[in-house]
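ok so heres the complex, two chains, lmk if somethin looks off
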Amino acid sequence: MHSKQERYGDFQGDIKKETSLIDSLIKKSLKFLQDHNLIKEFSHYQNKGKKYFMAVEFEPSAEVTGGAWYSNGSLDMDFIATVKVSCLMCIKQLKVATVEGIAEFFDKTHVFHNKCFSEKIGEIVQTLVLDNEVMEVKSTGMGEYAGIPFGALCYKLVKKQGGVPRVGALTSIPCGVCPRIHECTPDGIISPVTCVYYTKWLDF
Amino acid sequence: MVTQYGIKLAVSLISAHFGEIVAKVCCCLLQKGTLTLSDITRYTELPSQQAKNCLLVLIQHNCVQAFAIAKEGFGMSTRAITHYSVVYENILHRLRFSKFLTIVSEELDKECEELLEGLLQHGRLTLEQIMLRAMSKQNEGTSVYQDVVRTNFVRLVNLRYVERCPTSEPFLAPNSEEEAPSIGKRGPKSAKLGLSETIEQRAMKAASPSEAKRFLIVTDIGANVTEAKTGASMTNLMLGEKRKHKALETDGSGAATICEKEVLWRVNFEEFVYQLRKKVCASNVRSRLDDGASIILNAMLDATKSEENLKSENTVSLTMDAIFEEVIKSEDGRTMTLDHVRAGLTQLGCHPFIRDGEEYFSVDIKNIIEIAQNEEVESIMLKRYGDDAYRMFRLLSKTGHLVETEKISDMAFVERKTACKILYNLWKDGYLHMEKIISHGSTQYQFLLWKVNKHLIKEQVLDEMCHAVLNLMQRMAYELGKEHEILKLPREKRIGVLGKRFDRIRKVKILLDSSLLKLDDAIMLFSCF
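and the predicted structre for the whole thing:
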């Protein structure tokens, strides 16, 4: 275990294959090593059922743990939410920012203990784009883009009316969000005349 | 694009406006496609005369187009058979009459609005009929008033809000290949597959007057329509402006009489759709970007209109000077500098290209419409399936190609199990396309790949919207029917419980009406623009 696959760990099945020992002996040995704090157990972030082992002095690689956004094999939602909010605040303050600009801002203001890698910040900014919180724009090098090279990809907050996202025409009425819309017919058991969602909506 | 609920909505509109029998004929045409009169009587089981009358009503209101095709019989000479084809879009436009009237009242005046209202109510009219109608409303028949009506009508025609009606029954020569009326195969499928145009499209093309004739109008300023009607000789005829030559005057007066008495006019829906498309694009750009970008877009669209590209996917290409010239025509545009305009064009995603040493810009209208459509679909995802689904859907929509489950879960920061569940739900409801790939080797792996099928989604969302409009209309009828006595109450009796009920039904009506208008805007976004 010391000699190879230092960053990936060993899968229990692979150990059996390589050592040609019987199951019970392997289990016993692994337990002994764990008890003496020589090896540690961890799971793959995509396959939590599989047990991996590794010497205590090594850290599992990002391919196995899932990287910075994972904790104990699951997505660290609290941490992700914190980074998202920080990114949003940074973009709000800078008005228009590149990923490198955000990472630099974090490093300068010491928002996080560790150094911020623009690659990781880029992943978070991409989810903010998917959340429709920020939008991708290309720098023109003029006005608010001054200081950002021409053509560089940058991000700015999405304009929202009254701070709330725009509601579509269909979703602003009960039919747009109705789980039973496919069973709704004019004379059926579920119909717009007897619809409880409509009654609630039109309750003035 | 005609969907299942689209047909139901069209039938319901016809039924509400013209009654059940006309709706039956319309439903038959919508479901079975183009038919002959004998087919219609066979399918609807209506007497021939009744079916014919229903068709006449539908033709009068521009909902049906007739055309004749030459058919060869066994051992018989070739004869022309009349077919009837329903114009689905024109039926749905009946929902939008109030919007069309608002456009005219905003751009022109109340009198023009009344003229247009008459045409919308009656479908197609001659100028003489329009004038008689206007006079009966005003109780005024002086030739001065008639001239006002004529002038207003010419304004409507010049702005292309009113056009000459298409030929009532164009004759189509048989194609070299055997071509049957496209029963049950309407619109997009055949168009998408790149097939040759359908017989209905050929008929519409053949029926529509040429561009030169479509808005051609000759009127007699000073002529009295009531006298003309009784056959009195028309003196003092003038063609728009006074003419010097008597010979010309006589020729012109003949043309003007024909134009007033025989030529049928109707509302040009295409122009109104263009105006509404312009409004939607400008409001989308304003809410997404800013007022400046919206002003520039409006200016470029105005320039495009003059080039007669009503349905074009891009605006015309204009130089910076030409754009600036258009921008400063509007009051808000006068505050803008060249730098503002340049920045606005960049915001709109205009990439200049050089021609003859000059920079040209053009705005991608199709892209703006697509963004507005995506916003509508994404809003459904957010409300129905939640934040995670919204993010995943936007990711797939942006990518535009097949993406593997694991990659989606990684990029959208959603746990794999949850991602699988959401993707499956979206696929089950018809919003996603899924492909399974199995890798064969020592161990078998199965990969699921997902993709957004924009065409299918558009069709599905449109169908759901038509369903929602039908539901809104039905609920409105139910609510108004339930409270019809309360609505008739005089003001002094609207107190206490009755007053509360009156207030409630008033609010309900406003909410349902505004939702209906908003939803119709969305339907137009998906089907007309």
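quick notes: The first strand of chain A starts at residue 10 and ends at 11. thats all i got rn
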